[in-house]
């Protein structure tokens, strides 16, 4: 399959085309982010988010441009968004001793966050059950059993890239279910 053909087929929601694009561009996007942030987990997370966003918005891709460049632009924007989120969640504390400023990252959930999470968990579980069983399983393995992609790949006896695409699709479908029931 050629890249342009895969893009056209992906726009028609062809799962094999999504797999083909992921296989062809994963190393490029992941490697780009790894050079930028020098953290394997963060680079992988950004790469996954990049493909998720790209596949969600594939119909907006203009064939007059290079697909690889489009992916890198999405990847850069996701990285910038993550940096902005981290900066807004940092509070400054002034030490009385030496009047120097320290930055402390406050990631602990508030009481309200915990309550909202508990209430939404029951609804989320109901929404997950509306997905096809293979999507339910991959979401369960990743987010509830907290398995790595490699562990999920072994559990399902599927290649890692298939697991990543399946998880992307499952999250997209789950988001659609959640929007419909909200």
From TrEMBL:
Q: Which GO terms describe its molecular function?
A: DNA binding; sigma factor activity
| InterPro entries registered for this protein in UniProt | RNA_pol_sigma-70-like (IPR039425), RNA_pol_sigma-70_dom (IPR014284), RNA_pol_sigma70_r2 (IPR007627), RNA_pol_sigma70_r4_t2 (IPR013249), RNA_pol_sigma_r2 (IPR013325), RNA_pol_sigma_r3/r4-like (IPR013324), WH-like_DNA-bd_sf (IPR036388)
Pfam families for this protein: Sigma70_r2, Sigma70_r4_2
Q: Which residues form the RNA polymerase sigma factor 70 region 4 type domain?
A: 128-174
CDD domains annotated for this entry? Sigma70_r4
Single GO BP term: DNA-templated transcription initiation
The UniProt keyword set, sorted, is: Sigma factor, Transcription, Transcription regulation
Is Metal-binding given among the entry's keywords?
no
Q: Does the keyword NADP apply?
A: no
What sequence ranges are listed for the domain RNA polymerase sigma-70 region? 29-87
- The protein's superkingdom reads Bacteria
Family, according to the entry, reads as follows: Belongs to the sigma-70 factor family. ECF subfamily.
Which PANTHER family does UniProt cross-reference here? RNA POLYMERASE ECF-TYPE SIGMA FACTO, RNA POLYMERASE SIGMA FACTOR SIGV
Protein name as it appears in the record = Sigma-70 family RNA polymerase sigma factor
Q: Which organism is it from?
A: Seonamhaeicola algicola
